Amino acid sequence: MNRQMLFQPFTVKVPGTSANLGCGYDTLSLALQFSKEYNQDAVIPTDVDKNFLTTTLYSIIQEEANVKDLSTIIPSDKMVLLDIDNDIPVGRGMGSSAATIVTAIYIAKQLTNNSSTWTKDTIFQMAIKYEPSADNLSSAIFGGFNIVCSTDLGYTICKTTPLPDRSLLKGVVVIPHFQVLTMEARTAVPSSFSKSDVIFNLQRISLLTNLLSTFGDDSIPKLEQDRLNYQKVTTHSLMDKIHQPYRSKLVPGLADLLQMSTAIDGLFGICLSGSGPTVLLLAYDNYETIANMCQDNFSKHNIKSNHMILEFDNLGATITTPPLHN
Ligand SMILES: Nc1ncnc2c1ncn2[C@@H]1O[C@H](COP(=O)(O)OP(=O)(O)OP(=O)(O)O)[C@@H](O)[C@H]1O
Ligand SMILES: N[C@@H](CCO)C(=O)O
Fold first, then answer.
1. ipTM of the prediction
2. Nearest alpha carbon to residue 208 among 169, 165, 179, 254
3. Does ligand 2 have an atom closer than 6 angstroms to the CB of 275?
4. Which of 17, 136, 144, 155 is most open to solvent, judged by the fewest CB atoms within 10 Å of its CB?
């Protein structure tokens, strides 16, 4: 064992997330297992004073762990090496900023010896101070399917339901080769809505919550007509009148895609992932055909894209420490 070692090496893993799920603007989200497949094209500063992960880490150590002088945990002649593996596409609507904040909190938790006091719920409430999108944060921390509810009680409620493991239901993400700034996408959403649009979304949030919370492969009918009827219900459940129609101007082709609800057998529903531009297609069959349909639509608007077929993540954020060798 290296007796000079300041900290035992540890690994923090945080899943990517897809927020809103159409109707559930700022309310619903789910966690997805990303793999190395994605060729990261974003330029992330490596300078510790400019990188979002390290600047957030400093803030958490100082503000949340109340360590004002960093040299009390890391002597000035020592350093901490961060080896970052970035599998979540950056700035594409799959929770890369939420994952960064959660990663920073887990690193701070380890460096400041807060392992027992910083529970997942503490971390969730803490993370909200650094990113207002509690939806992405909830799935990044808890995994599964999440409903968040802001309160005036000083905390945000989160209810997590695991998604079926190794099920036919998967998240197909189609990632266009451009970024949408979350701020711009939020500004596009109006501040008031008609009563009928609010009711439209309330009905679908309730329906989708029921469908996802109870989903099992045996939910999928076998007979053709029954499958079609089931698909009409599931595709309806993701529809939205609160944010997607207003964000369509930022994602060419999105408006057409949202009309293609029952075009292909196996499609559970289509929505914009987070603030976009990625499109999430929940599907239980014909994954490649469904992804190609979406990519062809983007091509018609001269937008290049690629796709990934992803399993859901039920673990959320994890931290592991390898056993020390003697
Ligand atoms: N691994 C990372 N290291 C440092 N900063 C990162 C990393 N990943 C993301 N970021 C920061 O997060 C920003 C992207 O946040 P933004 O909210 O625009 O997109 P997103 O989180 O991918 O999408 P959404 O919130 O819609 O799901 C990047 O510009 C960068 O500043
Ligand atoms: N609910 C958020 C997620 C993106 O951070 C939004 O749609 O703006």
1. 0.95
2. 169
3. yes
4. 155
